[in-house]
Amino acid sequence: MRENELSAIVIGEAIKVHQQLGPGLLESVYEECLMYKLLQTTLFVERQKPVPLIFEEVKLECGFRCDLIIERKIIIEIKAIEALNDIHTAQILTYLKLTNIKLGLLINFNVVRLKEGIKRVVNNL
User: Fold this and answer.
1) pLDDT tens digits for range 14-36
2) What pLDDT digit, counting tens, does each position of 106-119 carry?
3) Residue closest to 48 by CA, chosen among 26, 31, 36, 61
4) What's the CA gap between 102 and 38, in Å, rounded?
5) How far apart are CA 12 and CA 15, in angstroms?
6) For every one of its 125 residues, what pLDDT tens digit does the chain have, with 9 covering 90 and above?
7) What angle do CA 3, 17, 109 make, to 5 degrees?
8) Which of 2, 17, 46, 125 is deepest in the core (most CB within 10 A)?
């Protein structure tokens, strides 16, 4: 499955989670619920996957963790904040570069309509 097809599935499941729970909960709650919904679709999902950093030819375990990685093709970064801003985009773009993954989705569940809390980020490799 291609990135756009996968992202449509992820967004659909995220909307279902948001419709049931609404805004105002912790990121960890949304992450757990979205993980549960995505596993029901039979997609391969990795949660809190460590992302190593290569610095001057040395592999460093710096504590970077991707919230969710779908089919090794999309990174999902979950937020429950007032508003997404440039630092969140920079964060997911860094994860995309470190993992050589092309597409990331920033999903902020702390909004009235989830559509307003989703941002696609593309790594131009």
Assistant:
1) 999 999 999 999 999 999 999 99
2) 999 999 999 999 99
3) 31
4) 20
5) 5
6) 899 999 999 999 999 999 999 999 999 999 999 999 999 999 999 999 888 777 787 777 776 889 999 999 999 999 999 999 999 999 999 999 989 999 999 999 999 999 999 999 999 86
7) 80
8) 17
Q: Which two tokens stand for residue 51?
A: 């992302």
What letter represents residue 78's amino acid? I
- DSSP for the chain reads --HHHHHHHHHHHHHHHHHHH-SSS-HHHHHHHHHHHHHHTT--EEEEEEEEEEETTEEEEEEEEEEEEETTTEEEEEE-SS---HHHHHHHHHHHHHHT-SEEEEEE-SSSSGGGGEEEEE---
* pTM (2 d.p.): 0.91
